[in-house]
Amino acid sequence: MEQNMDHDYHPLPGSDSPADAKGEASFHNHNIAHDDHVSYQSNPNLNKYALAGAILASTNSILLGYDIGVMSGAVIFIKKDLNITSVQVEILVGCLNVCSLFGSLASGKTSDWIGRRYTIMVAAATFLIGAILMGLAPSFPFLMAGRVVAGIGVGYSLMISPVYVAELSPALTRGFLTSLPEVFISVGILIGYISNYALSGLPSDTSWRLMLGLAAFPAIVVALGVLAMPESPRWLVMKGKIEEAKKVLIRTSEDKGEAELRLAEIIEAASVQGMTQDKDKASSSGSDSSVWNGQGVWRELLISPTRPVFRILVAAIGLNFFMQASGNDAVIYYSPEVFREAGIQSDQQLFGVTIIMGIAKTCFVFMSALVLDRFGRRPMLLLGSFGMALSLFFLGFGCTFLQYSSDKPGWAIALCVVAVCAAVSFFSIGLGPTTWVYSSEIFPMRLRAQGSSLAISVNRLVSGVVSMSFLSISEAITFGGMFFVLGGVMVVATLFFYYFLPETKGKSLEEIEALFEDEAH
Question: Do 135 and 249 contact (CB within 8 A), yes or no?
Answer without folding.
Answer: no
